[in-house]
Amino acid sequence: MKLIGLTKKEVGDYSLIRAINALAAGRPLQQAAPFEYACSKAARGDAPQRNDGAQWGQITVPADILFGPGRRDLVTSTASAGGFLVGQTVPPFARALNHASWIEVLPVTRIDDAADNFGIPRNTGNVAFDWLSNEGAAPTERDFVFGQNALTPKTVSTAVERSQLHLKQGAPQEALLMAELGAAVGFAVAAGCANGSGASGQPTGILSRITQSVSGTSLSWSNLSDLIRQVEAAGASGLRVLIGTSAARTLRNREKFAGAGSIMAGGFIDSAPVVVSNAMPADALVIGDFGQVVFASYGPGLEIAVANNVSSSNFAAGITTIRALWSLDVGVLQPSGLGRVVTIT
Fold first, then answer.
1. pLDDT for residue 226
2. Which residues, other chains included, contact 84 with Cβ-Cβ below 8 Å and sequence gap of 6+?
């Protein structure tokens, strides 16, 4: 997903609702939403397909504006389904609801604008060396052993339906739409990158790629510190922790040893900063060098398409369907640089 360098004022001027209304009405984006059209063009860059998006009823949202999609039908006539927002000011809380924050917060290696399938080469063995006993001695020649992290695009998609009354609400709907989209796709991306199965279109999450682990049964500080030793022995530094909510509660309430304080205290485990995420399995944690995690975003980023005629009933009711797509994948360069614990009790 591509940043295009918008200023704070330009981000405030951007209106996804304006672009959606233009697409829904079949009006050219260049005329009805020129700023949003220009942002879409900048986000797409040199992408060869559907460059302007207009003829497909589609727009690309740059990373400066939005992070992801949600699924919910909103109408003004039912309070809990969106009526509470009519005439109200909704704060721009899309970022607060962005459950993919572990990808944003932890120092993962990011590849934007990835194209097609590609592999990242890595050395799968240790580099051996020799001490030379005299100036005539020669080192032993050794070959590197290479492996590859193969990344292929996995696409997450969702659709929301909006009534014409909602699309006319302006600022409150702008904030809500961003929050709904950001929360839903953000959560799907974070959960998939953490623990995706690798089947049914999902990425293979980092928990399945990490090889070093200890038992989570009655997890003690002794066992956890041994896992830390393992990842440090593999050369990892600058350790961070990604942890599920139940595991975080357990470790907040478990002493290292009598009188030594909790295993997790003040947002740290030992000296490693902790990120708690409900996109992780609740009873699991990952600790190590998150620079080994590679997050690849394919193409220009989040693509939003609009349709008015998905069904005859929606057409009659003036309901607009908004679909969002994002293609991505995740890999791990050196799995030994990370450790995992699952089923923590």
1. 97
2. none
